[in-house]
Amino acid sequence: MFKDVKGGFGTVTLNFMERYAEVDPKFVKQFKDELGGIWRLKDECGNRHIVKFNNSVTSHFVIDGMIQLRQFYGLTGSNLLLFSYKGNNKFRLTVFKKEVEEYSFPAFHSQSSKPKPKKFVVTLTKYTASESELKDFAEFMRGCKQHKSLYFMGPSASFVPCKLLIWEGRRSCVKFGSGWKKFCADSGFKAGDVLTFECKDAKKSRIIFVTKTSN
């Protein structure tokens, strides 16, 4: 889990819109009082980048630095970027080099086809909260098996990577592996909590939003 993260958003950078990237309006609304025109990015390898934010009240874009960023990571198509906000206009940047399809774009994105998200309600037991077997929507999770790992966003508003483990055969089951137990602990989820899992598309999207409905 990324430390000291206050919020974040995911967006898609496109080859025919390579000069800028769209920013989630909800993120801008949440941090409008502190966002400046210069954003400082740092990826998991320590590479640093500087981009400019237009700070518009209507349309929100990163307007400078995207061409250089795409060239640095060798991006040539439609690629997902995760911006994890640490405050003071500093971000943890996660770059996915595998291209994404239009219908898996964030809903706010101008090129998104905006399908209805899929939602599943799961009640955590002592076993599922600690050992990660969630049978309630196993079939849906099987549709994610090509990803091998997923990114969860919970109350902390940061993206948490988690392994996806799938066994087939007589004892077939689906589990969230490395990362899930810590995600529950960091999010304050415990046995008896009712959680809502929201995902746009099992076969394409790697991001799942998790909220607590009741306890």
UniProtKB/TrEMBL annotation:
Report which superkingdom the organism of origin falls in: Eukaryota
Any Pfam family hit: B3
Q: Which residues form the TF-B3 domain?
A: 167-214
What is any one of the record's Gene Ontology cellular component terms?
nucleus
* UniProtKB keywords: DNA-binding, Nucleus, Transcription, Transcription regulation
Indicate where this protein is primarily found. Answer: nucleus
Annotated GO molecular function terms are: DNA binding
Does this entry carry the keyword Nucleus?
A: yes
Q: Where in the cell is it found?
A: Nucleus
Full protein name: TF-B3 domain-containing protein
Originating species = Trifolium subterraneum (Subterranean clover)
